[in-house]
Structure to design on (216 residues):
């Protein structure tokens, strides 16, 4: 008799547990659908995550400028890669090619990188290229502070690029900057990648120490 009562009681506990799990699943599904609907069908953006539109480390604007023969010729370099994005571009001729990353995700924005130690970049390149630090007040022209982005032989590598004056220089062919490296850091509008040789380049990461790009 005692065993029968225990069996009945255990059955009631199991039934209650099953009902609770079913209710939780329904509630979770409803909340998930509500979150997606509230962001126009996109997963909601959370602090520290990527932006709601394509981005790499919250940098949304990876652009072919139309300078030099590139693929793509103009527009965004971002392409889908798994659950995220990569930026891909090909330089085709022995001429200067230019691709741009806007640090504030719009042209009018700028960032103060004076307190940054540098940036990590995961990339592949079949030949050497350079990255320029272009300030808002001296945006146009090739006469900018730059540093070498060495060829990886087409292999994916992760490399740290310090934002210290001794690691940045200029090229006589492009001209000597009229502004200081410190001023370029304080009003940085973009990182501009330039190269004068045929090259196949892919970017997977660009994390800047002490700076979190705003999604737009």
């Amino acid at each position: 008799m005692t065993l029968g009562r225990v069996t009945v009681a255990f059955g009631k506990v199991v039934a209650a547990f099953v009902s609770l799990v079913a209710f939780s699943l329904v509630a979770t599904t409803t909340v998930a659908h509500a979150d997606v609907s509230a962001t126009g069908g996109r997963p909601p953006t959370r602090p520290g995550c990527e932006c709601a539109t394509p981005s790499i480390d919250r940098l949304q604007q990876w652009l072919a400028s139309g300078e030099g023969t590139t693929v793509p010729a103009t527009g965004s370099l971002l392409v889908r890669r798994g659950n995220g994005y990569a930026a891909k571009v090909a330089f085709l001729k022995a001429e200067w090619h230019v691709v741009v990353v806007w640090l504030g995700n719009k042209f009018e924005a700028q960032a103060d990188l004076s307190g940054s130690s540098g940036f990590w970049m995961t990339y592949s390149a079949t030949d050497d290229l350079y990255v320029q630090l272009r300030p808002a007040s001296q945006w146009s022209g090739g006469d900018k502070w730059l540093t070498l982005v060495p060829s990886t032989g087409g292999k994916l590598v992760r490399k740290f690029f310090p934002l210290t004056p001794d690691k940045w220089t200029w090229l006589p062919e492009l001209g000597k900057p009229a502004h200081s490296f410190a001023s370029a850091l304080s009003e940085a509008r973009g990182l501009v990648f330039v190269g004068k040789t045929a090259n196949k380049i892919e970017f997977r990461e660009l994390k800047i120490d002490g700076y979190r790009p705003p999604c737009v």
Observations:
- The longest helix spans residues 2-38.
- The first strand starts at residue 62 and ends at 65.
- The radius of gyration is 25 Å.
